[in-house]
DNA sequence: TCACCATGGGACATATGCTGTCCCATCTGA
DNA sequence: TCAGATGGGACAGCATATGTCCCATGGTGA
């Protein structure tokens, strides 16, 4: 498929440029709708007029609609993005990187969005939308219990979940683990609530204080409210989570100096589900928490990992030495390049 | 893949038209090179200027070259045609018909060119070029012995064989069967000679008179020159042949009224390798000839059948109830439609 | 409620590319 | 040698794309 486009380009040059330009326009509209010509032009570094011609064309073919408050993506526009994604990935060479990363990390499949979320904050949002697309295609129909984690990346995913996801599905969201010391805005409970809201689904919170001893967790496990949620987690068939850089996570969760020192000593590079691992994928420290562990992913129908930014490359690369080979990864070019260039 | 193009078209309308126009331009150049703008314009029902703009573009990208005697296809142009073929087949809907026909007839694969060779004589030539493309991709490297049949279709294939076929191959052509009463221009010996010439290969003729008795064939088989050729035929690993309408073939070969009556009585619809069969693929009459039979195809590495025109539909459909499922078919839209519409 | 700002739409000159239609010098092949 | 086909030049007309304004308006936050 890769070579094919070379010839298309030779026969109708600049068709691909135009296609890519309009595709990125569609993406940007989806991300910021409702939005006006001038904002779009600025964001995409195009002139107002070219944006306008493109919009007029897309209006003709019904992919966008113009309202007094700005441009909106139509349902057809949504579908177009979904259908054009692999094609555009081909054109930009991302497709090649996707297959490379897939084999390199042993993934079920892989989606790479362009950019680097360490540099531009909107890339995280694009990853969120990619996650939404993926879920729409991969989430089994019917009832599902979705275990999710917290974090800024997961919050971005939650922001973009659309109601169309719930068309043939009844979704229940549940935090994969108890409160992990994150700030309220990005903790799993908040993410759950937001996802449930967006998809007209249900959610169940898991309010847990910081745990310091195994004793406390054993007694807490008896609490009816908590036991019920833990039971739900045990029945989750879908997991969406992120992978974090070890030190960044330790700092964000304000872990004690003692624990941090342990992490350093044991060369922890990444974290997922509260488990810290070194570059060989060996778990070197577990945050004492209730809920899902990496090993529970085996029994899931669908596992989606979302992580981007070159700073997380080492973490992600190490992480995928652990989980079953059925995980989907959604990442960005910054991270992908960092892993592949080695 | 089929749906994808709908969206490409929605995002960049009329690019596909242009792509198709230029592709057909390339095809026409290949067919008639060296050729001038005006001839091309006339043949493709375009204006001179349009052809010129397209040619200029193709010149820029190096797919064609302009000489004082006309336009030539470059090597890149050749490659472009080859690589764009499946894509264009998608766009025109031919691809869908190809897969349909493939499953319907139980083929290894199938190439359909647009048009109907019963209506336009140049369609046969296009099929020949398609055959050339297919051989270039499928013919095993190294030495091959290619058994070919006669007929106008095979003659068209022979016309278009190109030297590039022989890049990594040494080819020997041999008539699959003895002279079948065809006129010299289209008989297998001539076709062989022409193919060998085009590919810098060898060929071995098989000159046989009309045979009327099995006795004669047995004695002829002893003749050293004939025995040698027959031995070569036995070692053929590739076969290229056509499928004919039963009555048309009987007439062309000036078969006796008696035999023709037999064919009618037994409801023969088609012919291949001198074997006539009815609509169920049952062989109802064998021309007493020396050489290859349909059953010998089993041991071949590659079998290509070439037949087009709606009038041959019944014959082709019946034929593919006989041979192994590894045959490639090259046909035209007229024939494909006739089979598929039922 | 009001004011402001971003919105879509209109307008226009300009640039670029495509089209139709000539003519012409030149090359080719019979 | 010569007739016919070749590529290239030229030009006007047309369509589309582009850059740059301005304007009325509607939604939103103060």
UniProtKB/TrEMBL annotation, chains A, B:
GO-annotated molecular function: carbohydrate binding; DNA binding; DNA-binding transcription factor activity
Domain HTH deoR-type: 18-73
One Pfam family, short name: Sugar-bind
UniProt cross-references to PROSITE patterns, sorted A to Z: HTH_DEOR_2 (PS51000)
Domain of life: Bacteria
DNA-binding is among the record's keywords: yes
Keyword list, A-Z: DNA-binding, Transcription, Transcription regulation
Positions of transmembrane segments: none
Family listed: Belongs to the SorC transcriptional regulatory family.
Protein name: Central glycolytic genes regulator
Gene: cggR
């Amino acid at each position: 498929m890769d070579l094919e486009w070379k010839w298309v380009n030779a026969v109708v040059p600049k068709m691909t440029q135009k296609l890519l330009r309009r595709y990125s326009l569609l993406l940007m509209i989806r991300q910021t709708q409702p939005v006006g010509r001038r904002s779009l032009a600025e964001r995409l570094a195009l002139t107002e007029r070219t944006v306008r011609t493109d919009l007029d064309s897309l209006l003709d073919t019904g992919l966008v609609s113009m309202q007094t408050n700005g441009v909106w993506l139509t349902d057809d526009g949504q579908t177009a993005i979904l259908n054009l994604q692999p094609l555009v990935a081909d054109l930009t060479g991302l497709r090649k990187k996707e297959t490379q990363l897939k084999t390199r990390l042993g993934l079920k499949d892989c989606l790479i969005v362009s950019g680097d979320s360490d540099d531009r904050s909107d890339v995280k949002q694009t990853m969120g939308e990619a996650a939404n697309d993926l879920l729409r295609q991969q989430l089994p129909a019917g009832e599902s219990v979705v275990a999710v984690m917290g974090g800024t990346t997961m919050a971005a995913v939650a922001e973009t979940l659309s109601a169309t996801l719930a068309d043939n599905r009844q979704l229940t969201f549940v935090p994969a683990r108890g409160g992990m010391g994150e700030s309220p805005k990005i903790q799993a409970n908040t993410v759950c609530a937001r996802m449930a809201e967006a998809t007209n689904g249900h959610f169940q919170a898991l309010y847990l204080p910081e745990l310091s001893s195994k004793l406390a967790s054993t007694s807490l496990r008896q609490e009816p409210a908590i036991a019920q949620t833990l039971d739900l987690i045990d029945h989750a068939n879908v997991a969406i989570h992120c992978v974090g850089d070890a030190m960044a996570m330790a700092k964000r969760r304000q872990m004690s100096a003692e624990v941090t020192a342990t992490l350093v000593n044991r060369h922890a590079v990444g974290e997922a589900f509260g488990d810290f691992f070194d570059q060989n994928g060996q778990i070197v420290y577990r945050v004492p928490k209730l809920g899902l562990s990496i090993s529970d992913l085996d029994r899931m129908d669908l596992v989606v990992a979302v992580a981007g930014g070159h700073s997380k490359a080492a973490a992600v690369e190490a992480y995928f030495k652990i989980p079953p080979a059925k995980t989907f990864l959604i990442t960005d070019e910054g991270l992908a390049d960092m892993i592949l260039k080695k």
